[in-house]
Amino acid sequence: MSGTLAKIAEIEAEMARTQKNKATAHHLGLLKARLAKLRRELITPKGGGGGGPGEGFDVAKTGDARIGFVGFPSVGKSTLLSNLAGVYSEVAAYEFTTLTTVPGVIRYKGAKIQLLDLPGIIEGAKDGKGRGRQVIAVARTCNLILIVLDVLKPLGHKKIIENELEGFGIRLNSKPPNIGYKKKDKGGINLTATCPQSELDTETVKSILAEYKIHNADVTLRSDATADDLIDVVEGNRVYIPCIYVLNKIDQISIEELDIIYKVPHCVPISAHHRWNFDDLLERIWDYLRLVRIYTKPKGQLPDYTSPVVLPDSRTTVEDFCMKIHKNLIKEFKYALVWGSSVKHNPQKVGKDHILEDEDVIQIVKK
């Protein structure tokens, strides 16, 4: 393990002392690829007997979405969690006795949202130290990450945490790079760029791919991409997660400073202790989670508005809705009646491919 760490440190040092210009771009690209490979080794250890079942850090996924809280010790994560879960929670703490992380589930707009404290990500977890690895595995399954920062020293912390998460292949508030990549059996490396490239040329692409022992592939650059983007696509194990920076302890700063903070993108200032601005934070969380609520209507009864079926906005067909309730439901499915913004008239008869929108009401008619 330490060997890998030493190698990583060595490459990082070399990158730091290499000037960035056209002549060295090629070399830097190579170093970045090597670094990405070493990092991956740390996250997924090589074979071995495995460490038995992990130290109980697998968290049962409950609810419709999962939010991970990351932050240095003593920035008020726990206070924020217990106050959020305390104010809005319906779930008693005794449901989770064996798990090390789950602090609570909140109900917001009918959706059950699981709040997870991700401890010890900061202290060198991506170097495989400590409990890091299991925490990362859980972090990668979150639908949203909240980085809790102390408003008095935000920037230093923010950088460190972002670097750590980047190192695990978690990309915050970004979209997957627009790069087409296809391995082949023969024919060498074909590079097509649909727009001018400031960083990648055929040489650099070839050397990065060679580092992965890939000598035959089609690469299509559809946007001005960086070496890091290409490495992300080749590694293929990156997850793209939205992120909100929560600036805590605003009771310690002036109104003028608060106004400045409000203009920073993805930032929500709060005071966990005084419970200030929680509604704003929850609203922002809801926006970033992008969930769609569907209400069910049993035949001859009024719709049940208290417990919606919640779907991610990427998968909201009637079929997805059926699968969420029970996988056998789709076999008996005849058609559905839908009321709401996704249909032209209320109710409308739709098939299983119909795409539902937020707050639609649905009634399933079986065969």
Short summary:
Residues 290-366 form the TGS domain. By secondary structure, the protein is an alpha/beta fold.
Identify the strand order in the major beta sheet: 2-3-1-4-10-11
| Percentage of residues assigned to helices | 25-40%
Strand content of the residues, in percent?
A: 15-25%
- Largest sheet, strands/sense/barrel: 6 strands, mixed
Order of helices and strands: HHEHEEHEHEEEHEHEEHEHEEHEEE
Please tell me what the overall shape is: globular
What distance lies between the first and last C-alpha atoms, to the nearest angstrom? 59 Å
Radius of gyration over all CA atoms, rounded: 24 Å
> Overall mean pLDDT score?
77
Number of strands: 16
**What structural category characterises the helix and strand content?**
alpha/beta
How many helical stretches?
Answer: 10
Q: Which regions have little confidence, pLDDT < 50, spanning 5+ residues?
A: 47-56, 90-99
Domain TGS: 290-366
Keywords: Cytoplasm, GTP-binding, Hydrolase, Magnesium, Metal-binding, Nucleotide-binding, Nucleus
Main location: cytoplasm
Subcellular location: Cytoplasm; Nucleus
Q: Care to describe what's here?
A:
By secondary structure, this protein is α/β, with parallel strands linked by helices. 32% of the residues lie in helices and 24% in strands. It contains ten helices and 16 strands. It has helices at residues 2-17, 22-43, 77-88, 132-139, 154-167, 202-211, 227-235, 255-262, 278-289, 318-325, and strands at residues 65-71, 104-108, 111-117, 144-150, 170-172, 179-183, 189-193, 217-221, 239-241, 243-248, 267-269, 291-296, 304-312, 333-339, 348-350, 360-366. The strands form four sheets. It has a six-stranded mixed beta sheet, with helices on both faces. Helix 2 (22-43) runs parallel beside helix 6 (202-211) and helix 6 (202-211) packs parallel to helix 7. The longest helix is centred in the first third of the chain and has 22 residues, at 22-43. Residues 47-56 and 90-99 have low confidence and may be disordered.
